[in-house]
Write a structure and sequence with these properties.
Layout: H1 17-21, E1 26-27, E2 35-42, H2 46-57, E3 62-66, H3 74-77, E4 81-82, H4 96-100, H5 104-112, E5 125-127, E6 130-134, H6 140-146, E7 155-157, E8 175-179, E9 182-184, H7 186-195, E10 201-203, E11 206-210, E12 216-221, E13 226-234, H8 240-247
Parallel strand pairs: 2-3, 2-13, 3-10
Antiparallel strand pairs: 1-2, 4-9, 5-9, 6-8, 7-8, 11-12, 12-13
């Protein structure tokens, strides 16, 4: 089965599972557990895939399980936009959200240049800039904020002579700002993240099973096999709610 990004997804069937995961799993001697790994990630969006690559780069034994399609949910809905939080500061002041991810574009640029913990230089970049435009209704406070020291280097007002289409049209009377954010091709990103972890990305519907102490003891897979890990990470985005509810896990 192929994902919409063209990635092969293998089902963890009794006939093929041993060959696929021998190097990533070790046989568990505990009763009723088929496989073990250090870290099991449930969810194959960009969050889970990035985490998988980071763990592998750090020498950790990890596996990722995706029920449907890699990057098929919120990852594709994000349209590949990687921003540094300015959109959270349009009220004219910085916020915890805007500052937490202020360095996000520069971090991504490092990886896209092939200089990060793993190489994403083959990912297709659609744009190196965001453009934010305003009309005369925008308050002077917001305009002054865009020129303030607190966000210097993250936003720059563009002179009219450098306006791209359609903002160079005479009918446009507002201001145009360039944000130091980037846009990547999402299918390209998902493919590169997954292709760098051969044999570690499997298509399987996993259900968390809890023990008497309330902690997760193992994952039950759709073919009847079980996977136990030292650490379980739910990275399924919108699907996390259903996973947590099915497992009966209490969250605050």
């Amino acid at each position: 089965m192929a994902s919409r990004c063209g990635l092969p997804h293998r089902r963890l069937s009794p006939r093929t599972r041993r060959r696929q995961v021998d190097y990533a799993y070790r046989q568990n001697q505990e009763a009723d557990i088929d496989y073990r790994t250090h870290i099991a990630i449930v969810g194959g969006g960009v969050c889970g895939l990035w985490l998988l690559r980071a763990l592998i780069a750090g020498g950790r034994e990890a596996i990722l399980l995706e029920r449907d399609t890699l990057g098929g949910g919120q990852t594709l809905a994000s349209q590949g936009m990687i921003h540094g939080g300015i959109k959270y500061a349009l009220g004219g002041f910085t916020t915890p959200s805007s500052e937490t991810i202020a360095n996000m574009p520069s971090v991504w640029e490092t990886y896209l240049a092939g200089k990060g913990a793993f190489d994403l230089s083959a990912v297709r970049v659609l744009s190196r800039d965001y453009y934010l435009f305003s009309d005369s209704s925008v308050s002077s406070r917001v305009t002054a904020f865009f020129g303030s020291k607190s966000i210097r280097g993250r936003v720059a007002k563009m002179p009219a002579s450098e306006h791209p289409q359609p903002f160079s049209h005479a009918a446009f009377k507002g201001a145009l700002y360039r944000l130091a954010d980037i846009v990547v091709d999402t299918p390209s990103l998902v493919s590169e993240l997954a292709n760098g972890a051969p044999g570690r990305v499997l298509q399987a519907d996993a259900r968390a099973v809890r023990g008497s102490d309330g902690g997760v003891t193992h994952l039950q897979l759709q073919d009847g096999s079980t996977l136990s890990a030292d650490c379980y990470i739910f990275a399924a985005g919108q699907g996390n709610g259903a996973l947590i509810e099915a497992a009966g896990i209490d969250v605050v």
